[in-house]
Amino acid sequence: MTSLVRIERHGDIALIEIDRPPVNALSAALRRELLAALRETNAAADVRAVVLACAGRTFIAGADITEFDAPAADVRTADLCDALDAFQKPVVAALHGTALGGGFEVAMACHARVIAPEGRVGLPESRIGLIPGAGGTQRAPRLAGALAALDMVATGRHIAAAEATSLGLVDEVATDLRAAAIGRARAMADSGQFARARDRTVPAIDLAQAMAGVAKRARGARAPIAAAEAVGWSMTLPFDEACARERATFAELVGGAQSRALRHMFHAERVAARLAPVDGHVPNPWPVRHVGVVGGGTMGAGIAVTLADAGLDVVLMEVSAAAIQAAEGRVRAVYDRHVASGRMSEATRGERLARIRFVTDLATLADSDLVIEAVIEELAVKQALFAQLSGLVRRDCVLASNTSRLDVNLLADQVDAPERVLGLHFFSPAHVMRLLEIVRADRTLPEVLATGLALAKRIGKQPVVAGVCNGFIGNRILAMWRRQCDFALEDGALPQEVDAAIEAYGFAMGPYAVADLAGLDLGLATRRAAAGSRDPRIRHVPIVDWICDLGRYGQKTKAGWYRHEGGQRLVDPVVTALVERASAERGITRRPVAAAEIQARVHAAMVNEGAKILAEGIAHRPSDIDVVLVHGYGYPAWRGGPMHEADELGLDVVLATVERMHAADGLGWEPAPLLREMVAAGRTFADLNRAGG
Ligand code: COA
Q1: CATH T-level fold of 5-255
Q2: What average pLDDT does the segment 187-208 reach?
Q3: Residues with CB under 6 A from ligand 1
């Protein structure tokens, strides 16, 4: 008996059970013990077949990510697979929870796989900048064909039991998992018929088209392409040679900057979702079952869909019959698209819709455990609503605002028990975007924050706690880097050049393409209102307002920063002329602005504002800022977010860029004192992450 692996006998079948909470990650110690158990059961004369299973919530969820920086271990996952290949008797893997990465590689080296109905399998290594390193890229195509394997390794997606079975990755779905696995193992021993995945051949197919798709979607990430290429070798190289190449690629990637960045993200996402203990106790969330959503516009409807998808009862409220009808239309449109694309059955659509009640009477929300307001972004309107809600709902009903920039404290002021008020800032479209900024107001109780975090987990969002300020973490940083883009225009760049520079950096779309999509009239009223009170010393670029003056609001008017024709974005001489006029009015002689300069300025703007946000306590730790930018704003995950990347670049390099921007752009571009202090002390954001817990 060992501590992580035990062998249980079921007559002539040995069941090897792994028990390493929380997710049975394959650590060096576990690999050692598992190898010993495999050898023991293979050698035991009275064992006719073996079942490999896991205790707890899941089958092996992959290699232990915390050990990737450690020196090479004595037993590798590939050694386990080799041991399984050498087995003289059948081995059946019993999969439940998530059999991922190295866990699924081990399972594929077994002679058969049985899976629980809710089980999922996957090779998600590319999501942490790696490829499978124990033959996964060779066994998966042997089981499922090259095309399916390529999709699996390039996307890293989790594949549900039914699909995994139809692809041939697993052999059987069974409710009574262990009994089924034992039965199958015994039958295989009786018949003497069991085969190894490695001995199969992979039917040749033309991968070129799939590879082109992978390269396009990768947007600068190396691992998906490397993983897909490795799958390609399964058709051309002998198994052992392909495995050796796979291992060499893994070794190269694991020491690289991209994998380091993605592993940073893995930890950052989980740390952001946890609440620090208060007085030694982790605060308990309040129970949430019934949720009221006030406002059925794009945001409110998207939020209602997200909640209903997670099994919550939703009451969506609008002020008039016409408005609620429109809201219902928006909700239905989302589900109709899902059904039309084949991603959802009609029955499921019916179930989801049945969870949402569409009402026009606020009193219907009286019984809610949580109310999320998503009405127009005007303080007075939101304050009046909070005051009304205060008189209506129970005192333990959490009251949340979906504001993207207003002071949540001013909403809490309207309410009895203001300690139950917080911000839940969803991103548009709310049912798609993963980020949820949870805004902690001055009086928000830890339990109420915990309720927000628990809700995020339940509805599949990535939470980050932010303090109150204009724009919270994300929009405040966005405003700064967008301004640097506008400055680059005045200095000599054109919108399409800035967009190309940002896309080359790894964002899906450049800022001007995004602006045209979102609508340039968004925030126009605010911009016009602010125009009179703007400090003339602040560098302000008027181009977007001039574009709006021409009635060009982006894609919806077929013209904005670009002309839009037949789904194409076309450079428009009208805009070029406006950009040149802006330079002339500021007395700037236009010069070529290289993509690298635009990228460096945008990055430095994010880091400088990020450092200010940290110093003000708006973000707990630098890695929270990384999570916000990656999950809410399209910052490439393989760069690890702006703060991680600043560490990689050297904070002195970033500071030098900020100082140049300050010299050129003046007020508002002062280097963050924290950044200066850190450079002087030779500290990194990673140091602050460690200190922040
Ligand atoms: N190595 C080390 N620790 C791991 C791990 C791994 N491969 N996978 C998960 N964990 C840890 C998490 O850090 C977390 O620890 P914490 O509670 O201290 O924060 C804990 O296990 C639970 O993980 P979490 O992600 O919070 O739970 P979940 O139920 O939402 O998701 C998984 C579970 C397994 C689906 C998810 O953790 C996952 O995708 N893990 C990575 C799998 C992977 O990439 N494997 C291939 C590695 S090569």
Answers
A1: 2-enoyl-CoA Hydratase; Chain A, domain 1 (3.90.226)
A2: 95
A3: 22-23, 25, 61-66, 98, 100-102, 124-125, 128, 130, 270
Residue count of the chain, please give it: 693
Residue range(s) of every CATH 3.40.50.720 domain in the chain: 290-470
Helix (H, G, I), strand (E, B) or coil at 172: strand
- Taking the C-alpha atoms of residue 378 and residue 381, their distance in angstroms, rounded to an integer, is 5
Q: Which atom of ligand 1 is the closest one to the Cα of 100?
A: 45
- From 65, 120, 246, 260, give the residue whose CB has the most ligand 1 atoms within 8 Å, as the site to mutate: 65
Instruction: Report the CATH number of the 473-551+578-693 domain.
Output: 1.10.1040.50
Q: What are the start and end residues of each CATH 3.90.226.10 domain in the chain?
A: 5-255
What residues pair up with 50 in beta bridges, in sequence order? 14, 91
Q: Give the C-alpha separation, 104 to 113, whole Å.
A: 10
* Alpha carbons 378 and 390: distance in angstroms, whole number: 18
pLDDT tens, residue by residue, 493-541: 999 999 999 999 999 999 999 999 999 988 787 788 888 888 888 999 9
Question: Within the chain, which residue ranges are assigned CATH 1.10.1040.50?
Answer: 473-551+578-693
Consecutive H or E run containing 130: none
17 annotated active-site? no
Q: Quick check: pTM over 0.70?
A: yes
Whether 497 is catalytic is: no
Q: What's the CATH superfamily of 290-470? A: NAD(P)-binding Rossmann-like Domain (3.40.50.720)
Across-strand partners of 357? 315
Lowest mean pLDDT among 358-367, 496-505, 522-531, 649-658: 522-531
Q: Choose one of 20, 23, 453 to mutate for the ligand 1 pocket test, by most ligand atoms within 8 angstroms of C-beta.
A: 23
Q: Which helix (H) or strand (E) holds 115?
A: strand 112-115
Q: From the candidates 8, 40, 67, 125, which is the catalytic residue? A: 125
